[in-house]
Amino acid sequence: MSFRVTATDGAARTGVLSTAHGDVPTPAFMPVGTKATVKSVDPDELRALGATIVLGNSYHLHFRPGVDVIAALGGLHRFMGWDGPILTDSGGFQVFSLRHTILRADDEGVTFRSVYDGEAASFTPESVAQIQAQLGSDIAMCLDAVPPADARHEALEDAVRVTTLWAARQRSVEQAPGQLVFGIAQGGTDVELRSRSIAALAPAVKSRRNRRLCRLNRRWPSSSCWLTRWRR
C-alpha cells in the first residue's frame, strides 16, 4: 500500500494513493456508481471529466445482480467497463440509514429486511469482506455501526466499540489480491471520540508504512475514514 502526502496547509493536506488499478490524487471527487454504473455517464466520459476513482455499492450489488454473477463475469471492473480504481462500501451505511428495515443489531452483526423483496438478510464483518473480495474492488470498506445524527454520547461510544470489534474481525478474512481496506472512524462530531476511534483501530496496523499513515490521520482527527491495508 502506498500513500504519500504531497502538500499541507494547516489542517488540510493533499496526497496520492496508489492502488492496483492506478493512482488517486486526494482529496478526490468520487462519482457514485451505486449499481456498477454512474447513471447517464459512460466510463470514457468519466475519464474525460477527470474522475480517477468510482464508488460501487456492496448492498445493492449483493442483492442485484448478485456478487456471484459479477465474479463469474470477471469482477466489478469488467462488469462495469471501468479499468481505474474502484471503492466499494460495506453496505453498512445503507442498512443503518434504512433503520426501519433493521431487525437486530448487535456485536455479531446486523440483520435487516432487504429493500428489494423484504426477506431477512444479515451482514457481518466476515460476510461483507467476502462480498467485496468477490467484487474485486481496489478499496474495501469495513462494516461499521452508524448511529443517527442525533445519537446520545453513550450511543456514539458504543458505535466506536462495535466498529473497532468488527474491524478486527474483518482483518481475519482474506481480501482480493491487492485490495486495500478502509477502517472507518466513528464518534460523530465529538473530536475526542473520533480520535479514540482511530487509536483503537491502530493496533491492527502491521507495516511501518501503515503505522505512519495512522499517525498522519491522528493529526487530522475529523477525517471520516482511516486508510490502511492490513497485512498478515
Outline? globular
Query: What is the rounded distance between the termini?
Result: 13 Å
What is the CATH superfamily classification?
A: Queuine tRNA-ribosyltransferase-like
State the helical fraction. 25-40%
Q: Specify Rg, calculated over alpha carbons.
A: 17 Å
Which sheet architecture does the biggest sheet show? Answer: 6 strands, mixed
Q: Domains counted in the coordinates: how many? A: 1
State the gist of this model.
This protein is of the alpha/beta class and 232 residues long.
What features would you describe in this structure?
Helix content is 35%, strand content 24%. The chain has 232 residues and is α/β, with parallel strands linked by helices. It has one domain (14-228): Alpha-Beta Barrel (TIM Barrel), CATH 3.20.20.105. The strands form three sheets. Strands 4-5-6-10-11-12 form a six-stranded mixed beta sheet. Helix 6 (125-135) packs across helix 7 (153-171) and helix 7 packs parallel to helix 8. The relative contact order is 0.12.
Outline the secondary-structure elements:
Blueprint: E1 2-9, E2 12-19, E3 22-26, E4 32-33, H1 43-48, E5 54-57, H2 58-63, H3 67-72, H4 76-80, E6 86-89, H5 92-97, E7 102-105, E8 110-113, E9 120-123, H6 125-135, E10 139-141, H7 153-171, E11 180-184, H8 191-201, H9 208-219, E12 225-228
Parallel strand pairs: 4-5, 5-6, 6-10, 10-11
Antiparallel strand pairs: 1-2, 2-3, 7-8, 8-9, 11-12
Helix pairs in contact: 6-7, 7-8
List keywords for this structure.
3-stranded antiparallel sheet; 6-stranded mixed sheet; single chain; alpha/beta; 232 residues; TIM Barrel
